[in-house]
């Protein structure tokens, strides 16, 4: 799959959080999707939607600082603005299987002023 397609899929996955349209992200994840973060060590797709998706209500926007395709991964660094105006920065590694995201690793950054 061309790199641009995976980069666009990554962008679309964050766009789902901005719009609050869960059906978008559901279509972008594999059935055996696994999510990792310092707070969530390998949770499955169902648990991801229970724990992480509610954060979509708190997200206003993402500003991408880095979108790098390498093999089956896209590395994403973003700064996000929350609905309360607070901002934060994270880096994520999205691993693809074909045109779907199979794994996400989130590395928490910091709060921004």
What does this structure look like?
The chain has 113 residues and is an alpha+beta fold. The protein contains 3 helices and 6 strands; from the N terminus they run H-H-E-E-H-E-E-E-E. It has helices at 3-19, 22-28, 45-51, and strands at 29-37, 40-44, 59-70, 73-82, 87-97, 100-112. The chain has a 6-stranded mixed β-sheet with strand order 2-1-6-5-4-3. Strand 4 (73-82) and strand 5 (87-97) form a beta hairpin. Helix 1 runs antiparallel to helix 2 (22-28). The longest helix is centred in the first third of the chain and has 17 residues, at 3-19. The model has no long low-confidence stretch (mean pLDDT 95).
Rounded mean pLDDT score: 95
Strand content: over 45%
Number of strands: 6
Structural class of the helix and strand makeup? alpha+beta
Computed over alpha carbons, the radius of gyration is 13 Å
Ranges with pLDDT <50 over ≥5 residues? none
Give the CA-based shape.
globular
Write the layout of secondary structure elements.
Elements: H1 3-19, H2 22-28, E1 29-37, E2 40-44, H3 45-51, E3 59-70, E4 73-82, E5 87-97, E6 100-112
Parallel strand pairs: 1-6
Antiparallel strand pairs: 1-2, 3-4, 4-5, 5-6
Helix pairs in contact: 1-2
Which short descriptors sum up this protein?
3 helices; single chain; six-stranded mixed β-sheet; alpha+beta; globular; about 110 residues; about 25% helix
Describe the structure in brief.
By secondary structure, the chain is α+β, with helices and mostly antiparallel strands.
């Amino acid at each position: 799959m061309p790199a641009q397609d995976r980069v666009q899929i990554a962008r679309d996955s964050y766009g789902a959080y901005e719009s609050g349209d869960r059906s978008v992200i559901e279509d972008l994840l594999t059935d055996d999707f696994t999510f990792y973060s310092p707070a969530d060590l390998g949770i499955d797709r169902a648990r991801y939607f229970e724990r992480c998706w509610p954060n979509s209500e708190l997200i206003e926007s993402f500003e991408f600082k880095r979108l790098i395709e390498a093999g089956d991964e896209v590395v994403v660094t973003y700064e996000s603005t929350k609905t309360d105006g607070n901002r934060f920065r994270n880096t994520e590694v999205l691993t693809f299987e074909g045109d779907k995201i199979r794994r996400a690793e989130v590395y928490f950054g910091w709060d921004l002023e």
